[in-house]
Design a protein that fits this description.
Blueprint lengths: L9 E5 L13 E8 L1 H5 L4 H18 L3 E6 L2 H9 L4 E4 L4 H8 L4 E4 L8 H10 L7 H12 L3 E2 L2 E2 L33 H15 L18 H15 L23 H5 L5 H13 L5 H25 L17 H4 L9 H13 L4 H15 L3 H11 L5 H12 L16 H7 L20 H12 L1 H5 L5 H8 L4 H10 L7
Parallel strand pairs: 1-2, 1-4, 2-3, 4-5
Antiparallel strand pairs: 6-7
Length: 502
């Protein structure tokens, strides 16, 4: 794309999720564009909009005179205001749309991606080498561990085992309202946060944009220093108990022992290498058990890298996947995060947490929110868009494969080997949510029938032919055939959705 005129300072464009030092170029002036149009196109969670703008403006303040910060309606307008027709560089953006946009600009030179451990080209070579074309996250994860020497003792995994999931599935402690762990790092707001909130208020009052959910106070880092403090706080105070309760839920403890670092990673404030290296250092120093450290490394160096690379490997057409033929719209109460419209305590509690904070950890996302959408047959593209808009750590690359592939099984098994549908028994085992609920997890008919239990069997019945030919779900179909009250279950499930508003 040509060379830069060395008589002028080189210009480098930072997108709003490229905010860490690893996205800078030496001796380059920086261009940052705040696009109002982004918020017009989607009804984002208010806390997400606040975090995105706060993080960008904090970064601009850090860069000082080095940055050309432009507020514009579109990125194209902003680029013209910032640099005219001058040449600029930018690191590979994180969405198909953004990549197509920058590649279509003659003045822009696209550099390789940053902020990930594995480059898409390397992933493609690995994927094409897999016999039978069956990609497994476990195989990829072990490859990443070896290539980056993560939790390795020579050529063997630390502790002699690659996977410690079996030790990371404990239910929460009985009769505990919260885990016995210190709270996560909490940032302090400043004048930049106050100005962002005033701007959002003004835009919303004018009818220019609309949001969902509640905003404030900010719970996630908006700058590099805050993100590093959050990482240190997690590793020293919460990582030791992360593993055992990784899959547990408590109504009164929305953070559990989770790192709360996904937003910082996905804004580019942290690099995945520094996160997994800090976790491994804690294990080597005897400050955190192996199961917790392996569980965290698996999330960051395994699953996150796998999702990022599958996003590019599977291509833009993947978003149209709908193997189960689900086309029901996302209902208004769910889209509006109306937790008061539902009686099922697990769903109401989780929706309230999303409404209030724009974040819940991976089990409520998968087994409460995603499970409900899957059972009801909601359009997977609409579900993906909802997750994208309503979570502070969500971007197109994050949610496309996680929701289309993992949560909604809309790709028919390219990402995961079975649908993640379950009845109320799973939620009851892994949480304290069912005890005070109006419904009973063991009941599938009648007024106290658990919506998840009845919905599960209706889902299995609806897709029984497909599920019967999957070795991981064939047993459920056989169990379905032995239900003496199946007709009542189906009538119950179809007659009313107990969670929906009238």
């Amino acid at each position: 794309m040509g060379t830069h005129d060395r008589s002028q300072p080189a210009l480098h464009w930072l997108f709003g999720d490229q905010l860490g030092p690893h996205f800078l170029r030496p001796n380059s002036d920086i261009v940052m564009i705040e696009s109002r149009g982004v918020f017009r196109r989607r009804r984002f969670h208010r806390a997400k909009a606040h975090l995105m703008l706060s993080a960008m403006r904090h970064r601009a303040a850090e860069l000082g005179d080095r940055v050309r910060y432009v507020q514009a309606d579109t990125y194209r307008d902003g680029l013209a205001q910032a640099v005219g027709d001058a040449k600029v560089t930018v690191h590979h953006p994180t969405s198909h749309a953004a990549l197509g946009f920058v590649r279509g600009l003659r003045q822009v030179e696209v550099l390789p991606p940053r902020g990930f451990l594995v480059q898409p080209e390397a992933f493609s070579r690995w994927a094409e080498s897999v016999r039978g074309g069956r990609l497994r996250m476990e195989d990829f994860y072990r490859r990443v561990r070896r290539e980056h020497d993560l939790l390795m003792d020579g050529d063997r995994p630390a502790g002699g085992r690659w996977n410690m999931d079996a030790e990371n599935r404990e239910p929460p402690p009985k009769d505990a309202a919260a885990l016995p762990v210190p709270p996560p790092y909490r940032p302090r707001e400043d004048a930049i946060d106050e100005q962002v909130r005033a701007d959002l208020d003004r835009w919303e009052r004018s009818g220019d944009v609309a949001f969902v959910g509640r905003d404030g106070p900010r719970r996630f880092p908006a700058g590099r220093a805050e993100a590093r403090r959050a990482l240190r706080a997690f590793v020293t105070r919460r990582l030791p108990t992360f593993g055992r309760w990784e899959d547990a839920m408590l109504a009164g403890d929305w953070t559990m022992s989770h790192s709360m670092l996904s937003a910082s990673l996905n804004l580019g404030l942290l690099d995945p290498a520094e996160c997994v290296e800090a976790a491994e250092a804690a294990y080597r120093a005897g400050d955190a058990p192996l199961n917790s450290v392996e569980g965290y490394v698996r999330q960051v160096a395994g699953w996150r890298e796998y999702m990022w690379n599958l996003y590019w490997y599977l291509g833009p057409g993947y978003r149209d996947s709908n193997a189960l033929g689900h086309r029901a719209p996302v209902p208004g109460w769910f889209a509006d995060l109306d937790a008061d419209a539902v009686q099922a305590r697990c769903l109401s509690t989780t929706l309230a947490q999303v409404r209030d904070r724009g974040w819940v950890h991976h089990i409520p996302r998968l087994m409460v929110l995603g499970n409900h959408a899957l059972q009801r047959g909601w359009d997977p593209a609409a579900v993906t868009d909802w997750f994208h808009r309503c979570f502070v750590d969500a971007y197109d690359w994050v949610m496309l494969t996680n929701v289309i592939g993992m949560s909604q099984y809309a790709d028919g098994g390219r990402v995961t080997t079975k649908p993640y549908a379950s009845g109320g028994a799973y939620i009851n085992t892994m949480s304290d949510l069912c005890g005070p609920c109006a419904y009973r997890p063991a009941e599938r008919t009648g007024e106290r029938a658990c919506p998840y239990t009845a919905g599960y069997w209706e889902f299995v019945h609806r897709h029984r032919e497909r599920l019967a030919h999957n070795h991981r779900t064939a047993r459920a179909v056989k169990q379905l055939e032995r239900l003496g009250d199946l007709d009542d279950v189906l009538r119950n499930a179809r007659r009313r959705d107990p969670d929906a508003a009238p």
